[in-house]
Design goal:
Structural class: alpha+beta
Helix content: 10-25%
Number of strands: 15
Order of helices and strands: HEEHHEEEHEHHEEEEEEEEE
Number of helices: 6
Length: about 260
């Protein structure tokens, strides 16, 4: 009986420490030395602010198509703490798995995706995971908006000329807890490129919308070096979008279009 009481007390202390976290911190393992540290955010607003900071400070890495921006906040088990939940993002299964932080002692079940544990919930990486978890994405909230989450989209075009190469691409990425729409222009060596035309619109699954289109006059869109531009980044997925951009350089011009 004393052993059971001691274990319950240990779990209670752990949950209390977890709940009293600051805006952004790492949760130390207080149950087992085998549980790695977890970055924790009190709310999805705090999490979004951190992701915006990461985007600003990692513009060069964002040009790399292999770069996973969530690697900056996920631990070695691809787990993060946001609000009342531990969340595992698994791109291999295109799923997000969540566990209420009151079940921190079941961390290993989450890390190993043990779906026999009824406390673990599975959602798609294309869904509004944080909205489901914090209750903001309810049937009532969605009744006025019929947008369904958009799938992954990617387009690429390159051009060669004057012993140089220009590569333009656009991509919509979905991570379940974070969504990003952006485009990039990469030159084979240092030089100038010009942003010629654009036609960009989107609507989120909660019906927030954006639209921008036009073309630059000669010289107005000139830029030195590579370009990475974020059109949209949020914890709320896009439901509909159209992104068309054209760049030119001494290597020629290239255009890309992605839409859903």
């Amino acid at each position: 009986m004393k052993k059971i009481t001691k274990n319950l007390l240990l779990i209670t202390i752990t949950i209390t420490l977890f709940s009293c976290s600051n805006e952004h911190e790492e949760i130390n393992d207080t149950i087992s030395d085998n549980i790695p540290e977890i970055q924790y955010f009190n709310s999805k607003t705090d999490f979004e602010k951190e992701m915006e900071r990461i985007e600003i400070n990692n513009s060069e890495q964002l040009i790399n198509n292999e770069y996973n921006i969530l690697s900056e906040v996920l631990n070695e088990d691809n787990i993060i703490g946001i609000g009342d939940y531990l969340i595992k993002v698994d791109l291999n299964t295109e799923s997000v798995y969540s566990l209420n932080k009151s079940f921190l002692d079941q961390y290993n079940d989450l890390a190993n995706i043990n779906l026999k544990n009824s406390n673990i919930t599975q959602l798609s990486i294309y869904e509004d995971v944080l909205g489901f978890l914090d209750g903001s994405n309810t049937l009532l909230a969605r009744s006025a908006c019929t947008n369904i989450p958009a799938p992954y989209r990617y387009d690429y075009q390159g051009s060669n000329g004057n012993n140089r190469h220009i590569a333009v691409s656009a991509r919509y990425r979905a991570y379940g807890i974070y969504f990003n729409l952006g485009y990039q222009c990469v030159l084979s060596d240092s030089g100038y490129s010009r942003f010629e035309e654009w036609d960009i619109t989107y609507e989120t699954t909660n019906c927030a919308s954006y639209s921008s289109y036009g073309e630059n006059e000669y010289g107005d869109g000139e830029h030195y070096g590579n370009i990475y531009a974020t059109v949209y980044n949020s914890s709320v997925p896009l439901g509909d979008f159209h992104c068309f951009v054209t760049f030119s350089s001494s290597a020629g011009s290239a255009s890309v279009t992605i839409e859903d």
